[in-house]
Write a structure and sequence with these properties.
The chain is α/β, with parallel strands linked by helices and 359 residues long. The chain has 11 helices and 14 strands. The structure holds 5-S-methyl-1-O-phosphono-5-thio-D-ribulose.
Length: 359
């Protein structure tokens, strides 16, 4: 079977952003297409988690800008630039926590400024500008594929033959432009000939682990056992896992890491059982403007996700609900952060800066 591609661009500047609708997996495999006039639909796809996972959100948003500017392909310089800037500002509001969204849109914005400086209004061609922006989005995508491969290679050295590895949420090919971050480590270790058994937390409330991680691993014939989130302690206590490997949505200067709600609990359990807890993330997931985890904006999502997840009501209609989509794992619980430049360990600000600044 051919490898699934979670995000792709089809055609040239008047082409389409194509995304697998991750809200339908594993029951249905549907590819959505977004073209001219579909900017709001791209926003909705990010907001509703049809595309999700920090790096994938960034890539989708970069291509989303290319969808948005399709309305301005015959515009003059002024209209093109104001239209494009509005698309970028609009997409920035789609989700708050994953810094990769802002990182990718900042890159698109810098490219736009470069183009603005390059051409006078008389020389300017909107189609040429659109081509340059599409090239930038494709580069963001291509770079992510390489980052995933490098993370996989560095991280695989940490895994030994016959290990059980617990993961939370989905940090795989569905969540990135390549093979994932946490799951790339597992794919690489398996490709190197190691036998790895994955324990996937189901990841309430939206079940990214149950619906996506198990599906993705099974596509690649990697042994996986699904557990409810509240079973992790027992699985660890029974000696079934020797490492925890998760992704990240934003990491502050000191190494505090925001990832899917429940990750912090898993890190506490891992510490209790003396199991190493690793985060795998590209350096674009670091937010050097923030010093500590408390500063990370945490998305709060609709109460319906908890009381009416996937259609059926499972709690009294008017019960009070708190639904933060992410939590922050303090740096001291993290054994190492696996980046494309190598592994940051111990996780200190000094080591983070040293590894992230390597070219
Ligand atoms: O709400 P989601 O599904 O976008 O949350 C995703 C996660 O928390 C992932 O672990 C993280 O983005 C890393 S993906 C490589």
């Amino acid at each position: 079977m051919e490898r699934m591609v979670s995000i792709r661009w089809e055609g040239s500047t008047d082409g389409f952003l194509c995304l697998i609708d991750q809200t339908l997996l594993p029951l249905e495999y549907v590819e959505l297409k977004f073209g001219c006039g579909d900017l709001e639909k791209v926003y909705e796809a990010i907001q509703k988690l049809r595309v999700r996972g920090a790096p994938a959100i960034g890539i989708a948003a970069a291509y989303g800008v290319c969808v948005g500017i399709q309305d301005f392909l015959d515009a003059d310089k002024e209209r093109f630039f104001s239209g494009c800037s509005k698309c970028i500002s609009y997409l920035r509001k789609s989700r708050p926590t994953a810094v990769n969204l802002f990182w990718a849109l900042d890159r698109m914005s810098r490219k736009l400024q470069e183009i603005e400086k390059m051409y006078t209004p008389e020389q300017f061609s909107a189609r040429m500008a659109a081509e340059m922006l599409l090239a930038e989005a494709k580069e963001i995508h291509q770079q992510d594929r390489c980052l995933c491969a490098a993370i996989g290679k560095h991280g695989a050295a940490l895994l030994k033959d016959d290990m059980g590895v617990l993961t939370h949420c989905n940090a795989g090919a569905l969540a990135t432009g390549g093979d994932g971050t946490a799951l790339a480590v597992i794919y690489t270790a398996v490709a190197e000939g190691k036998k790895i058994h994955v324990y996937a937390d189901e990841t309430r409330p939206l079940l990214q682990g149950a619906r996506l991680t198990t599906w993705e691993l099974m596509q690649r014939n990697i042994p996986v056992t699904l557990i409810c989130d509240n079973m992790a302690a027992k699985v660890m206590c029974e000696g079934r896992v020797q490492a925890v490997m998760v992704g990240a949505d934003r990491i502050t200067r000191n190494g505090d890491t925001a990832n899917k709600i429940g990750t912090y609990g898993v890190a506490c359990l891992a510490a209790m059982h003396k199991i190493p807890f690793y985060v795998a993330a590209p350096t674009s997931t670091f937010d050097f403007s923030l010093h500590r985890g408390e500063e990370i904006p945490i998305e709060e999502r609709d109460r319906a996700e908890i009381i009416k997840g996937f259609g059926m009501r499972t709690a009294p209609e008017n019960v009070q609900v708190y639904n933060p989509a992410f939590d922050v794992t303090p740096a001291e619980l993290i054994h190492g952060i696996i980046t494309e430049n190598g592994i940051i360990t111990p996780v200190t600000e000094e080591n983070i800066l040293r590894v992230c600044q390597q070219k």
